[in-house]
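Try this one yourself first.
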């Protein structure tokens, strides 16, 4: 039996990436979730990150896992192991497939999938629907929230953007839930920290003023956040924040952190992208940062991700309006 890992990759609109096989494959012109064979001694997590980087040149964050599917194609039997992932990148670079598209979860059952992928799609649809239905009620008062294991379990089990939006709405209406989400974002439990900070970012999309009293805590604490996913969410929040609400004394701390993230060879693509946007907004306030930012962005042209290159071009174009640096036209 061949072990194959696949990725259900979601974008910020909760659409799922599907890719089409070529004519000269064992399933010509069929669609599938991207992935590949598990190498002996390799973990499923390492495999899917490697395969997605090689096949699509995009950056992913692993968020969950579905049950394996065992399927006999006649000429081979496979065990297909699906991981649920998120990405910031919208334009994959196809190296093994001939086409791609982003599909809404409810439309996945209309995709002409390879046979094993049909079962993966069905379980993903069923899981999303089941979890959404189970969250018809939320703990409403502070007394219950003091015993918050139910809330943590709820957050850890979220599978769809719809669920996140629903919890975010509850946080807007109940300040106790909002503060719990903020506290959970610093949890040592990586899943809880990621999903809490992700939900918090959805709250701030709708009511950014709710985060204003906490900006000092967030900025001063960025350096100590080891959870890459939580770091991503906080940087996203800051990239969309009205900078008039940020104490000018914190601008230097924020700039230093974002330059370190941008210039690091280990930072995730999403973290680099949000760092670029924050630094651009700081460069509008402090034009002397523009040349340094231009140089840092230009260095990213060797990155494999099409998404980071596209965002870099946007930043350089905007920088060209506030600096005469000729390097701003590169990339």
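Now uncover the answer:
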């Amino acid at each position: 039996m061949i072990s194959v890992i696949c990725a259900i990759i979601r974008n910020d609109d909760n659409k799922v990436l599907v890719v089409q096989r070529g004519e000269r494959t064992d399933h010509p012109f069929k669609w599938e979730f991207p992935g590949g064979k598990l190498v002996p001694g390799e973990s499923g997590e390492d495999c899917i990150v490697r395969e997605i980087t090689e096949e699509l040149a995009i950056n992913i964050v692993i968020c969950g896992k579905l049950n394996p599917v065992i399927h006999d194609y006649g000429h081979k039997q496979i065990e297909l192991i699906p991981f649920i992932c998120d990405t910031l990148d919208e334009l994959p670079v196809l190296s093994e497939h001939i086409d791609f598209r982003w599909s809404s979860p409810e439309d996945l059952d209309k995709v002409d999938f390879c046979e094993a992928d049909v079962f993966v799609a069905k379980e993903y649809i069923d899981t999303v629907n089941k979890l959404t239905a189970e969250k018809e009620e939320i703990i409403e008062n502070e007394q219950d929230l003091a015993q918050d294991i139910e809330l943590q379990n709820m957050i850890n089990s979220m599978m769809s953007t719809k669920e996140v939006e629903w919890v975010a709405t509850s946080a807007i209406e109940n300040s106790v839930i909002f503060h719990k989400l903020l506290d959970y974002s610093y949890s040592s439990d990586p899943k809880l920290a990621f999903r809490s900070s992700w939900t918090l970012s959805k709250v701030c999309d709708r009511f950014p003023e709710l985060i204003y009293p906490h900006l000092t805590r967030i900025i001063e604490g960025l350096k100590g956040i080891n959870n890459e996913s939580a770091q991503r969410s906080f940087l996203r929040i800051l990239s969309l924040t009205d900078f008039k609400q940020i104490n000018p004394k914190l601008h230097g701390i924020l700039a230093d952190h974002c330059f370190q993230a941008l210039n690091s060879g280990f930072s995730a693509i999403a973290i680099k992208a949000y760092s670029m946007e924050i630094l651009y907004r700081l460069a509008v306030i402090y034009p002397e940062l523009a040349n340094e930012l231009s140089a840092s962005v230009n260095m990213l042209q060797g990155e494999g991700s099409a998404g980071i290159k596209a965002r870099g071009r946007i930043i350089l174009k905007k920088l060209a309006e506030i600096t005469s640096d000729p390097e701003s036209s590169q990339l």
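Discussion: The CA atoms of residues 277 and 314 lie 10 Å apart. The mean pLDDT is 86.
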